[in-house]
Amino acid sequence: MRFSLPVPPSFSLPAVIRSHGWVQLAPYDSQDPYHAFAYVDRLANGRVVAYEVQPAAEGVQVTTETMLSEEERAELAHKLAWMLNLERDLEPFYTFARQEPKLAHVVEKGEGRILRSPTLFEDTVKTILTTNTSWGGTRRMVSALVDLYGEPVGEDPAPRAFPTAQALAAADAASLRDEAKLGYRAPYVSELARRVARGDLELEAYKTADLPTGELRKELLAIKGVGAYAAANLLMLLGRTDAIPIDSYALKVVSNEFHDGQPVTPADVTAAFERFGEWQGMAFWFWSYGEET
DNA sequence: GGTAGACCTGGACGC
DNA sequence: GCGTCCAGGTCTACC
């Protein structure tokens, strides 16, 4: 079955898909690189659905081989609105961007929305798995979690949904470490899953929390395995546009862009984008590094 | 508050 | 093929 979702005037599906590497992490898949994507989701009633999202004249088109009830379709639409950041009003950011040559392209290309997962739990696990490893390592670890603990769509072993907190909480810690190859990150993921499964940590509530960014950052830093970089990355995914996820890549590009390749500190990265105030995270993320204007 | 070392894996490199 | 080194963030112990 097919159904469409309306999108804001400035929306660009390729721009959202290209916003970062999440589309390369299971259960995302992109056969048509950066124009469309596939995803596998587990609905609230336990049904696992594989679907594709493509650009369409009236917005985006969702296609699935599964016949969905009206309630299921509404749930999927609600989740996709979050994943594609459809509710975001980018005009205030675009007003800034139009005045900065290194950001002018975001307006032209409809950039500014960042692809995310249906749940903050999935995004938090994936963020932990980006730390202290290569991108290839992250992809491997995420795929292993999906293959080992995710629920399949039907009888076939693949494709599978991202595992629930309950599934990961029930997993043997040694299996997480040795079979999923999470290494020392295994206890972090295990503890996070257990806290979420028990209801001790209401991660999803952070999506709509009215907390100042500093307070929310403290809450995220209290999660084992989430340090300064991971917290900033999650804040960015939560739409907190004043957070800059400073990792080794950030230090490198800021060094090259603003300091002639000389070594820089996290404070230098912050200083480089401070003038963008509440939009400094977006300015950092969408900056045209190394390109002449 | 700041710093050093451990954690784990894969890739690059030299032999 | 094997061994060594390094990159990549976070945690913990220590000062």
Number of strands: 4
* Oligomer type: single chain
Q: In which order are the strands of the major sheet placed?
A: 1-4-3-2
Share in helix: 40-55%
Q: What spatial form do the alpha-carbon principal axes imply? A: globular
CATH superfamily of the largest domain: Hypothetical protein, domain 2
Number of helices: 14
CATH class of the largest domain: Mainly Alpha
**Gyration radius, to the nearest Å?**
19 Å
- Strand-residue proportion: 5-15%
- Round the mean pLDDT to the nearest integer and report it: 93
The overall number of domains is 3
Write the layout of secondary structure elements.
Blueprint: E1 2-5, H1 13-17, E2 37-42, E3 48-56, E4 59-64, H2 70-83, H3 91-97, H4 104-109, H5 120-128, H6 135-149, H7 165-170, H8 173-178, H9 186-198, H10 213-221, H11 228-237, H12 248-258, H13 266-273, H14 280-286
Antiparallel strand pairs: 1-4, 2-3, 3-4
Helix pairs in contact: 5-11, 10-11, 12-13
The chain binds a DNA duplex (15 and 15 nucleotides) through helix 6 and helix 11.
Short description:
The chain has 14 helices and 4 strands.
Task: Describe the fold and architecture.
It is a single chain. The chain has a four-stranded antiparallel sheet with strand order 1-4-3-2. The protein has 293 residues and is of the alpha+beta class. The chain is globular, with a radius of gyration of 19 Å. A hairpin with a 5-residue loop joins strand 2 and strand 3. The protein is 43% helix and 9% strand. It has three domains: 88 residues, TATA-Binding Protein; 118 residues, Hypothetical protein, domain 2 (Endonuclease III, domain 1, Orthogonal Bundle); 41 residues, no CATH class. The longest helix has 15 residues. The structure holds a DNA duplex (15 and 15 nucleotides).
